[in-house]
Amino acid sequence: MDIRRTFSLNGRPAKAGKTIYWMSRDQRAKDNWALIYAAELAMAADSAFAVLFCLSPDFPNGNSFHYRFMINGLKETAQELEALNIPFYLLIGRPHEKIPEFVRQHKADTLICDFMPLKVPMAWRADVAAALDIPVIEVDAHNVVPCRFVSQKQEYAARTIRPKIHRVLGDFLTEFPKMQKQTTVFSENIQKPDWARAEALYSYSGAFPIVSGAKAAMETLREFADEKLSCYDEKRNNPNFDAQSMMSPYFHFGQVAPQRAALDVMKADAPDEDKDAYIEELIIRRELSDNYCLYNPEYDSIDGADKWALKTLDEHRNDRREYIYPYEAFETAQTHDTLWNAAQMQMRLTGRMHGYMRMYWAKKILEWTESPEDAFRYALLLNDTYALDGRDPNGYVGVAWSVAGVHDRAWTERPVYGKIRYMNRNGCRSKFDVDGYIRKIENIKKGGV
Ligand code: FO1
């Protein structure tokens, strides 16, 4: 495994020997660089390795819908690992309370964790690293080009990070080694995960819009690469074609590696412009989001935006708003705009919203709230609460781009928006059949297909 993916969280270099991989963001057995590295460190010392997952109650804005989707996927991963004789332990509680004790009890020589540049997961990792006197090594198993390696500062826009990624893409966009069955024994008594207890913590009786787990993720990827990729570039902005890969919830829970998607898309039988358009979204845009969250401590607030954007929004703070809605009106899709309401209903009913509609949806919140600060908070909370792929760097950057021009440029000045890029219903009409989209969501609402 390329050690440029690794970063020591407590200054101690990795040590071959008994290894534990604390799985968190990348919740899969296949194509997982953190797991691959744990195996390498163990095998280098003829020792053993195991995986542990800590089910923590305090993931920001996580609710039972998200937790149960995640647990369903974890059960499948645990089975895959056990089939490879790799023990999977499920701890329930806060990571800094549970993990150091577990690691000491099993006398591990190194703890591996994966990379997630959000404040709470980063704090979990920092606390655990500080509590242990063995190496705690972070492996970026999510980005094709490791986030800490590709740039050591906040990048201004896609155009500034793109060359840095493309320069080394060949080094990192490689095939994954296949996990071998483990022959050494990690521990005599492996307590099985208590899934019943885990599920009892998050009661949810609703349906899931998509099936959770690595198998379903790979099927969705194959279907996308075989059937939808070849109209991706032309149709990706049209919410009536779900050409947009339905992969984002699977990426968020790490049930498939974005790198696997890139490899499969490159091999697919489709025109180059469709492949390039998808790779741009998948690698450049997604890795730009991790870069923003890693290097901008205010990624979750409008204050993280660029000065030009904050200035222009401030200058238009007192412009008359034609409509002003409280959070609840947005949450229950009760605005005057049937298109906006359809987008919000799509997110509530299916846990996802089409990429193009997300931009329109967030920009209208800017237009129909008292202040840009309210707009930012409302959009983020709605996305984190209802989107299956919420609570993710991509979600934070999506809101920051739409409401506060992050990674975007200044546009013609206008009321309320100032120089923030404007979008309106006519713009949507020019892109797709708005009435068809509204009907489609109405149909889902009535319990139709
Ligand atoms: N990751 C965990 O390691 N433990 C959790 O309990 C946990 C809950 C959770 C709930 C909602 C959600 O969207 C994600 C959640 N995650 C959890 C994973 C999360 O996606 C992050 O990628 C990782 O926590 C980052 O380390």
- CATH architecture title of the largest domain: Orthogonal Bundle
Distance between the termini: 44 Å
Which band does the percent of strand residues land in?
Answer: 5-15%
* Secondary-structure-derived class: alpha/beta
Secondary structure tally, helices: 20
The arrangement of helices and strands along the chain is EEHEHEHEHEHHHHHHHHHHHHHHHH
Main sheet overview: 6 strands, mixed
Strand order of the largest sheet: 1-6-5-2-3-4
Q: And the CATH topology of the largest domain? A: DNA Cyclobutane Dipyrimidine Photolyase, subunit A, domain 3
Return the domain count. Answer: 3
The tally of beta strands, per DSSP, is 6
- The CATH class assignment of the largest domain is Mainly Alpha
**Bound ligands:** ligand FO1
Task: Give the overall pLDDT as a whole number.
Answer: 94
Gyration radius, in Å: 22 Å
Helix content: 40-55%
The CATH superfamily of the largest domain is DNA Cyclobutane Dipyrimidine Photolyase, subunit A, domain 3
* Unreliable parts: none
Q: Globular, elongated, flat, extended or rod-shaped: what is the shape?
A: globular
Written account of the structure:
The structure is a single chain. The protein folds into 3 domains: 3-142, HUPs (Rossmann fold); 143-176 and 213-295, Serine Threonine Protein Phosphatase 5, Tetratricopeptide repeat, CATH 1.25.40; 302-445, DNA Cyclobutane Dipyrimidine Photolyase, subunit A, domain 3 (Orthogonal Bundle), CATH 1.10.579. It is built from 20 helices and 6 strands. The protein has helices spanning 33-43, 64-83, 95-105, 119-131, 147-150, 158-172, 195-200, 214-228, 232-235, 248-252, 258-267, 272-295, 307-315, 327-331, 338-350, 355-367, 372-386, 393-404, 425-431, 434-445; strands spanning 6-8, 19-23, 49-55, 88-92, 110-114, 136-139. The chain is globular. The relative contact order is 0.12. The structure holds ligand FO1. Ligand FO1 is lined by residues 24-25, 54-56, 59, 62, 66-67, 70, 116, 121, 252-253, 391.
